[in-house]
Amino acid sequence: METEFKQLLDRKKNIDDVNTYFHDHIDILIDMVNYGSWLIPRAYDSSKKDMEAAIVIGVLLKQVITMIDSVEIQISNASIFPAFLQSRAAFEASLYIDWIIKEESGKKANYYYVFNLLDQRKWALRLIKGTAQQQKFQNDIKELIIFSKLDFDKDKELANKQLEEINKILNQPVFKQIYEQFEVIYKKGKREPNWYTPILQNGSLGIIARAVGRYPQYLFYYDKGSKVMHSSSYTDHIKFSKKDNKIIFEPIRYLNDIDYLFRYSMQMIVHTYSSIIKKYRAGEVNNYIKKYTKDWRNYCLNIPGVNYKSA
Known about the structure:
With 311 residues, the protein is mainly α. It has one domain. The chain has 13 helices and two strands.
């Protein structure tokens, strides 16, 4: 078993630092996630139990909570930089929640559902011999080791059954028009659409953020997560020394930007719960405000930062 190169990866020191300086904030993040785990069944119980509720509560709210739970796990292990990916994913789901419940909720939820059905349909077609999708898929992955382990004959029956079920749903009047809109976009073939593409045409997540009044958060927070996602920033990994023109490698685990991550995650989950409660549990608004004020606000507003000095 290899030992870590301490100058780049010192797990114990950084985890100890997190426990020493951010123990209370981690506890609050855990409390927020715990609160959300109860909010899911409460909100759904108060909903119309329709497609909107299934997507907004069962998918998107759960996505937010799942991602913040992952953020807490990563912070507790001093893995700060990668945790921005989970916060980014949670923020995206949070924007979708606000955008869906703002207006035309049922319509937007249906588009989300059909888009996911089409994705499942695509994978079913890839497993059925003779389809154009299977031939292209077979050619695209032929260099992967996994290709030799795929049994298309074995999976054909299951794929055909799944395809039949999906097509039956897509041909229902409530979904057929949406399905046909996506088909037009797919045939153009320029790029893979998002679930909201037929509604917004050439819209983007930034337009959604602006529509729900959260564009400043999108600019400040989402951009950070995107740079982590797409490996588009060198400054999180290396720095150039002005004295001797050497490269300084940043540690794999360290606490830089931990305050930024806490603030991003806490503000976003507090906002998300507020949106859900106002929509589905209006009678709980005052209790939620009391919960935030008594248990969370002080920690959300007072997050210590970390500064490293070069040795």
